[in-house]
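Two folds, back to back.
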Amino acid sequence: MFSIQEMLNKTEIQTHIKMVKKQLDAGSFHPSKGSLQTVESPALQAEILETLNSMPLQHIMKRSKEFLAKSGTTGISGAAYLIPDALHMRLMATSKQTDKVPLFAAEVVNGWKGGNLLVDIATRTEEGTLFKWTMHPQQSVSGAQSPMVTAKATQATLKPVQFTVTPAITNDLIEDNNFDIVAWHIDEAARNIGQYATDLALADLKTASDGDGTQCALTAGADTTTSATILEAVEEVGSEFHSPDTLICTHKAWSDAICVTASNAGCQYPPPPQGYDAKFHMLDTVFTNSKNLHAGVTSGKMTNCISLVLDRTRALLCGRKRWMQIEKYGDPVSDLSALTITNRQDCVTLYNDASCEITES
């Protein structure tokens, strides 16, 4: 792991710092346009990421100001140009607390050219009541021409919408070196971005209007969803020839009845995979109190909760562009009080019947 001074002394890093400075001169920063995270040497890149991840953002800000005080200019030390990378990494890491989309999307694609991305979705055909295929394998004889299988497709469009967050960082915090509070505001912005991204994705997953098939739907009890209803959703998604592996629900729905009803007596839950909150039978479980999963709060509890059971490999596709781009950002330190964080996202459903929406009455 490098110290700040050791990083600044490396020629390759100085080259990338110039790329960062060029971005800031234009008033924004995103690592895809030039970043310490994209140095060519894999070993050096690993060292840099380890250093920046282990070094709190507020520490880098403080040390950068110390370099400035000694040198009198950012151009001599270059230390301040470590801040944009550290800032972006902090935003990405903290947003994972509320950004649940990567946990239930088949893919999160990014970096394509142009504005919109057209997505071809192979439609499924029934083999009587036995199975559904996108491309039915055909038996062939060795040496003979293989039969051609052409998949029919429907098309959906990823059209990312932009949303922004401006952290409540004041000039006083910067001037008084209150970098711990600055970092807290950055974290709070990231958490809000993650939650909003999750809200947008869940709205698309609930609507299920882009892909092939028709979404499964069940009605639960009055302000209560039992484990029996969750397992019925597993049956329905499985009967559409998908493999249900994910449950999305609120804390209220989970605590009220999903995890405590009699049908779970004696059930042993294995630990969930990394990132997931719990395990329900075969379902990796995601907790989110999204506004799209309840009707409001009455007497301290959410009402009319909605839960979703899905095959996350086939239900939803997410597209993001220039994620966590930092705008209105020219000076690495002083412009922290004016920066805006912009994001672009859209989601489409792939196979609508790969999910089941459970609605409380």
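---
second:
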Amino acid sequence: MTTASKDKWLILLISSLLVAAPLIVFPAKLGLSLATGSFAYAIVEALYYGVIFFIFCPAVSLMQLLQGAGLTFLYRIVLGTIFGIVISLMYNVGLSAALTLGISRYLPAIIFQIVIAPFALRPLFLSIAGAETAGRKRHIKKYQPPVPHGVDIIRPDSSSRSDRKASAVAEHYGHESKTERPLSGHEPNGFERAVRYLGEHHAVILASVIDMEGLTLASYRKGQIDPEAWAPLALLFHQSNEKILNRNETGATADRLDLFFGSRKLTACRDKNFNLLVLADREDDELIGIRIVQAADMTRKYLSERYGKLLLPSTEEQYVSNS
């Protein structure tokens, strides 16, 4: 959750006005009596905040509405406390009586602050609700990948190691793969779109598409983690598990392995023509599993569309049936 610097200054400016404006008419009550204070009033106030925030972002969850309403209620209490301290100093009112007036009794200030408070905290609420909930639903319904930092794009002319990768991929999938390596600023290919899509999830540390020989076709990383150091594990894990399964003479192979260690989770998915390796922070979030399945489907479809004639007939039929 982040709030832009200009939004912070805007919140501070509006907060100052919410404290200063009622001082102009204090102690006039504008035809209103002093409030008696009631827990029911606090519930109505919180419901008002919830309704306004729901109007701001209809896709928000109930938990985020409660969080926003609670923060705004505390914000209003802080405004009332500051207002009470100011009138105590300006009008020589006892501090206890002044705080009571500012927080729960002096209606001209309280109503004014309640009405404006959710609008003042709108940027903060949207940073809570919009950054994850709206973004999550948008990406599940329709994939529109941005270009995140940390994606490795394999280019034939970038380095000698990339040259060897590109040559090996071209030999495995056909010479057309050389023309599929985009230059900077060009549309990414299917491998890169898959790892970028996985990288949009905050928990993902590393995502790589690896061919059947252990060569990295595309990868996303955060920090200083080296994709090349993790790539061989995709083959090693599946080979080791295949030996274990063969002891029971089942002839089965593992399509996906999930390994939990410490605060991290490693997922290795295997298809007939590629491996997908994902290293992420360990947390209870089903969305990352959905993204892994979708990224694998994106890679299959790309292989089918781009290299369909070069794949085995049985594999091609599988891609067509999944598209």
